[in-house]
Specification:
The complex is a heterodimer of chains A (about 425) and B (about 450). Chain A has about 425 residues and is α/β, with parallel strands linked by helices. In chain A, about 50% of the residues lie in helices and about 15% in strands. In chain A, the strands form three sheets. In chain A, strands 1, 2, 3, 6, 11 and 12 form a six-stranded mixed β-sheet that branches. A four-stranded mixed β-sheet of chain A has the order 8-9-7-10. Chain A has a two-stranded antiparallel sheet with strand order 4-5. Chain B: It is found in: Cell membrane.
Chain lengths: ~425, ~450
């Protein structure tokens, strides 16, 4: 414990030094970002609250900007209500200058309403230099770039209990076939291999997206996300059939399918990692590690490890989400702040403290405080342009984001009865057709 | 609530009328302004807002109302509201009546009344949190399921190996929850099972092969899964555990001819068997553990929440009815008793009719309260079944403020319908008050 923290501190110290050095150095390259913004005050809103230390970490990033430019930056946390708050503030003109948007669907929505300001050429260039092209595309709506992704979530991680793997004598699988085989062995050893949060429909959509992205490929994934191919397409049915290999066996799931449907996401994590553990693995994004830390005594890194979502097709999928900076007001300094957030130095200020994966490819992976976070980040960076955004977040909320309706509900029904692939595909298509019209 | 009522003033001399009207207005205006601002305007605006779409920009007429009645979720909420309105007030009133009548007759009535009334001092939110613990599915947390599993396991002992099943490709085949394998007298059978949890295995001893014995069927039931996955299928490898206390039966022609229970090393001996017999491990060995009742599952969630509500409000009904009871003329009761009426007859034919006005007040008050129920449902119903438990007030909140596709037009429409539903009860109450006052 002591060593990494020491390393972190040195890193930050080094960083501050290098930042100052950059500031004093050649001004020609970083013209706007190091502009003198003394006397300028910027308001930033975001979803990060003080609870998990996220707010403090982001504040450090903003302080870095302040130190560099002399501007004063105030951060307001709006938690889960950010979108709602912004939606009511913007029409009244009381919005902050910059917002960190947690949801791609909302970015599209805001852009179409004309609430977002296009990014400056410098900010666009910074995005192009520091990120794989896919991230720039994600921040672009109808040909105009509005957003810079600052923090990424890796939703292609399967978390497991090494003790359970050891007891059963299995290794973390790299392919879907190995995963199914390993699950059988773990089930034979007397432990339910999987804990599935069937009560929270969004975890099921994430399951599907990973399988689909890996099996059908990124091109089909994009088409399906835009509903250019129907959900009755053979690729969808194939993905559902694949899913059923794990979802279809009662002994693979803690509590069986019925039990899974009564399990919410935090409980699914607790079931796998809190003594006495009832399951060996739980699939969800990198934020599982936070849930483990909060609700169990298990230590991430020793009692809880992860492996990348096994490859169904040729490569492991990387399904991602993230928080992106957008400009809500054309105030002085706003463009510079967003450009700064696209830089590796801004990402480093938070990444070094842990709790953040940066999609910035020029960020040195060495800054992450532990191996777990480093490898989570590495798989996002390595996937390059094959990273895909969470499909259900891109879909209309009535299809991809509503409790008890659309994709959530249909995949829950599918989990209840994994034999009915055609029925599920038809139901999905019917719901999608209604939502996308 | 509603529009303030100015009682018809009796006629006065003309000279006074002007001044009196002014004074009256002076007293009324502050109240009118407040009521207008805080009651009339919001109601009016909600009605107006309900005619617009989610953005509040385009006029959609009655579309929101149409959507509301075709939307499955709102229909569920409406149906649940009906259940609430029918069940909760009647149960509470009946319980309150019973408690009030009974507490009149016992010495520690006051103590009982105090305890019964106490839940009224707890907020809905706190009561909701308390009852999430009461109704928790896990028997180690939820008191009701602790009782349910306790009672169940007393009558029916839990199976020793819940979830265990035959080793695939082994001699044992799953059959009706149990397992069967062919057997022959004079031979030792090997019956491999898997999926016994590591915790259970810790308490087991190493398995041993059984000695063949003429005239008997012998064999071993064991966990064919050594820690670490080593070992060969269908063979007793070192470290593999024998399963004790498993019931084994020998079946010939569908009839059980011998039965035994395995010893600590997993071996068993079925005496008096000759020739071929089917070895059966009945389902009772592997039955999944009884998990109690799913109180907050989709089927029971509304009755469960109503139960919590009854717990809170029974005391209120009891106190009101008790007060009514105290006001009843005892002479009538005594007269009836003297005439030979039984206690039950007195209760039914005299007490209840005389209490009718109080009972109506209690029921109407409860109906109004129950229609607006929100907090308990919001706190008690777990996320996935929230929609199954939903009521109109909750639906209104969820539709108006619940996340990315919130629609305050639709929310307003639900609010208006809820208002219209509560209105008759309100009017009834106000009328009654006025009748009583005149």
């Amino acid at each position: 414990m002591r060593t990494p923290r020491f390393v972190g501190v040195t890193l930050i110290a080094g960083l501050v030094l290098s930042a100052t050095a950059a500031c004093g150095g050649d001004d020609g390259v970083e013209d706007t970002a190091s502009a003198d913004l003394k006397g300028v005050t910027l308001e930033v809103a975001g979803p990060w609250s003080a609870g998990g230390g996220e707010q403090a970490n982001f504040q450090k990033v903003l302080d870095g900007f302040a130190a560099k430019t002399g501007a004063k930056v105030n951060f307001t946390s709006n938690g889960d209500t950010l979108i709602t708050v912004l939606s009511s503030k913007i029409p009244g003109g009381g919005q902050p200058d910059v917002a960190m948007m947690p949801n791609q669907g909302a970015i599209n929505d805001f852009a179409k309403k004309g609430w977002l300001k296009p990014l400056s050429a410098d900010a666009q260039k910074a995005t192009g230099d520091n990120f794989a092209a896919i991230w720039k595309t994600l921040g672009t709506v109808d040909g105009t770039q509005y957003a810079v992704y600052f923090k990424a979530a890796n939703k292609s991680t399967v978390w497991y209990r090494p003790k359970a793997f050891e007891d059963a004598g299995v290794q973390p699988p790299a392919t879907w076939a190995d995963w199914v085989k390993g699950a059988q062995t773990i089930a034979d050893s007397g432990v339910a291999p999987l804990s599935i949060a069937g009560a929270d429909g969004w975890t099921l959509t994430d399951w599907f997206e990973n399988v689909y992205l890996s099996q059908a490929g990124p091109e089909n994934y994009d088409k399906l996300a835009k509903h250019e191919i129907p959900w009755t397409d053979d690729t969808v049915k194939a993905a559902l059939k694949t899913l059923a290999e794990l979802w279809g066996k009662k002994e693979f799931i803690n509590g069986g399918q019925q039990g899974a449907l009564a399990t919410d996401f935090p409980t699914s994590v607790v079931n796998a990692f809190k003594d006495p553990a009832k399951a060996a693995m739980v699939y969800e994004g990198d934020f599982v590690s936070g849930v483990i830390g909060e609700n169990t005594d298990a230590k991430v890194g020793t009692d809880a490890l992860f492996f990348p979502f096994p490859a169904v097709g040729s490569a492991s999928p990387v399904v991602s989400g993230g928080d992106a900076a957008v400009i809500l007001k054309d105030s002085e300094g706003a463009q510079e702040l967003v450009e700064y957030l696209a830089s590796p130095e801004a990402a480093e200020l938070w990444a070094a403290n842990g709790g953040m994966v940066s999609p910035n490819k020029n960020l040195d992976l060495g800054v992450y405080p532990d191996d777990i976070q480093r490898s989570i980040a590495k798989s996002v960076i390595d996937a390059g342009d094959n990273v895909r955004f969470d499909m259900s977040d891109l879909a209309p909320a009535s299809f991809g984001g509503t409790k008890g309706a659309g994709e959530w509900k249909i995949l829950q029904d599918f989990l209840k009865n994994p034999a009915d692939v055609d029925g599920a595909a038809e139901a999905l298509e019917k719901a999608a057709a209604k939502a996308y019209e | 609530m509603g529009t303030p009522v100015i009682p018809g003033a009796p006629a006065r001399p003309a000279a006074h009328r002007g001044r009196a009207a002014l004074t009256r207005a002076g007293f009324l205006i502050p109240a009118l302004v407040l009521l207008g601002l805080l009651v009339v305007y919001p109601i009016g605006y909600t009605a107006w807002r309900s005619l617009f779409d989610a953005d509040g920009t385009s006029f959609v007429g009655l579309d929101n109302y149409a959507e509301m009645f075709t939307d499955g979720a709102t229909y569920t909420a409406l149906r649940n509201n009906v259940v609430w309105v029918v069940v909760a007030p009647s149960v509470i009133t009946v319980l309150g009546l019973v408690f009030a009548v009974l507490t009149e007759r016992v010495r520690w009535g006051t103590a009982f009344k105090t305890i019964m009334f106490m839940p009224m001092a707890i907020s809905f939110l706190a009561a909701g949190v308390i009852f999430t613990l009461v109704y928790d599915h896990a028997p180690e947390k939820g008191v009701l399921n602790a009782v349910a599993t306790g009672v169940h396991d007393t009558w029916e002992a839990p199976s020793p190996y819940p979830g265990a099943r035959p080793r695939e490709n082994g001699p044992l085949k799953a059959s009706g929850g149990g397992a069967v394998a062919p057997g022959k007298a004079g031979e030792a059978a090997l019956l491999p099972l898997v999926a016994v949890s590591p915790e259970t295995q810790k308490e087991l001893r190493d398995a041993a092969p059984a000695a063949p014995e003429p005239g008997a069927l012998t064999g071993t039931v064991w966990v064919d899964f050594a820690p670490g996955g080593a070992g060969e299928t269908g063979r007793i490898d070192p470290g593999e555990k024998g399963m004790k206390d498993v019931r084994v039966e020998a079946v010939v022609g569908g009839k059980v001819i011998a039965s035994a229970t395995t010893g600590p090393d997993g071996t068993f001996r079925l005496a008096g068997v000759s020739g071929d017999a089917e070895i059966r491990l009945p389902a009772e060995n592997f039955a999944p553990r009884y998990g109690g009742v799913d109180w907050l599952g989709p089927g029971l969630v509304t009755p469960s929440i109503i139960g919590a509500y009854v717990w809170m409000w029974a005391g209120f009904a009891m106190v009101l009815i008790g007060a009514g009871l105290a006001a009843i003329d005892r002479d009538v009761l005594e007269a009836a008793r003297t005439d030979g009426a039984s206690e039950f007859q007195v209760f039914r034919k005299i007490t209840v009719p005389m209490l009718a006005p109080v009972l109506i007040v209690v029921v109407v008050t409860l109906v109004i309260n129950v229609m607006k129920i929100f907090d308990l449902v919001y706190v008690l119903a777990p996320g996935p079944v929230q929609q199954d438990a939903s009521v109109l007030a909750l639906q209104m909140y969820v539709r108006s403020f619940g996340g990315s596709d919130s629609d305050q037009g639709l929310g307003s429409a639900i609010a208006i319908v809820l208002f219209l539903l509560v209105l008759p009860a309100m009017v009834f109450n106000i009328r009654r008050f006025r009748r009583e006052n005149t």
